[in-house]
C-alpha cells in the first residue's frame, strides 16, 4: 500500500494534527523496512513533531537500535529536547540500550544534556543499574558532578536511592562528591539511611 501511494505521488512528508509524519509513525512502530523505504523516497527525518520530537527521538524512545543507526547515518538532528526536555541520549540511557548509546556518542551527541528537571543520561543509567552503560558514558565525558533541579547528583539520586552499591563505590572512586547537599539538606548518608542501604552506610562510615 505504501509503495502504491508513493508511486501515485503522495507527499511522504505530510503531517497530521500533531505534526507527525509517516516516517515518525514507522519509527514508533519499529518498522525498519518501512523507515528505510520512506527515507529512500524523500522522507524528512528532521521534521519536529508537536511534542518536540524527531523520528530519531521516537526511535530512541522505542529502543530500536537498527532504526537509530539508520537515521544517524542519514544526518538526523541531534540533541533535540523533546517532551519533558529529554534528548535522544537521555532516552537511550533510560531504555538501557548500550547499542543506541554507542551510536549516539560516536555521532558526537551531548552526553551531559539535561531534561526539564535537570536529569542527565548518567542519572537515568544509574537508576537502571547497568554498570556497562554507566562506565562507558563516564569514560566518554559524562559529568558525575552535575545535579538535577532537586540537588541530587548521580551518586545521591541514582545510586543510593536505588541501592546500587557497586555504583556508589565506582562513582566515589571516580571523584563524586560525597558531601553534596540536596535542596532538602540531605547528604549521601541521609539518603542511604532513608532507603535502608546498609551496605552503603557501612562503606561511607568506614
From TrEMBL:
PANTHER family: ANK_REP_REGION DOMAIN-CONTAINING PROTEIN, ANKYRIN REPEAT, PH AND SEC7 DOMAIN CONTAINING PROTEIN SECG-RELATED
Keywords noted in UniProt: ANK repeat, Repeat
Name recorded for this polypeptide: Ankyrin
Record SUPFAM superfamilies: Ankyrin repeat
Organism field: Neocallimastix californiae
InterPro entries xrefs: Ankyrin_rpt, Ankyrin_rpt-contain_sf
Domain of life from the UniProt record: Eukaryota
ANK repeat boundaries on the chain: 18-50, 84-116, 117-149
Lineage: Eukaryota, Fungi, Fungi incertae sedis, Chytridiomycota, Chytridiomycota incertae sedis
Amino acid at each position: 500500500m505504501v509503495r502504491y501511494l508513493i508511486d501515485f505521488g503522495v507527499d511522504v512528508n505530510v503531517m497530521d494534527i500533531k505534526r507527525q509524519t509517516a516516517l515518525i509513525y514507522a519509527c514508533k512502530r519499529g518498522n525498519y523496512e518501512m523507515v528505510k523505504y520512506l527515507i529512500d523516497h524523500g522522507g524528512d527525518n528532521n521534521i519536529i513533531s508537536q511534542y518536540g520530537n524527531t523520528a530519531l527521538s521516537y526511535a530512541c524512545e522505542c529502543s530500536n537500535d537498527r532504526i537509530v543507526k539508520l537515521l544517524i547515518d542519514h544526518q538526523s538532528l541531534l540533541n533535540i529536547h523533546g517532551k519533558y526536555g529529554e534528548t535522544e541520549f537521555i532516552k537511550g540511557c533510560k531504555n538501557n540500550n548500550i547499542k543506541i548509546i554507542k551510536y549516539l556518542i560516536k555521532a558526537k551527541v551531548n552526553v551531559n544534556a539535561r531534561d526539564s528537571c535537570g536529569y542527565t543520561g548518567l542519572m537515568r543509567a544509574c537508576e537502571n543499574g547497568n554498570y556497562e552503560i554507566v562506565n562507558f558514558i563516564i569514560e566518554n565525558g559524562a559529568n558525575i558532578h552535575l545535579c538535577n533541579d532537586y540537588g541530587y547528583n548521580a551518586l545521591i539520586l541514582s545510586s543510593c536511592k536505588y541501592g546500587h552499591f557497586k555504583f556508589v563505590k565506582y562513582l566515589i572512586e571516580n571523584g563524586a562528591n560525597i558531601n553534596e547537599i540536596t535542596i532538602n539538606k540531605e547528604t549521601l548518608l541521609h539518603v542511604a539511611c532513608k532507603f535502608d542501604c546498609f551496605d552503603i552506610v557501612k562503606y561511607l562510615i568506614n
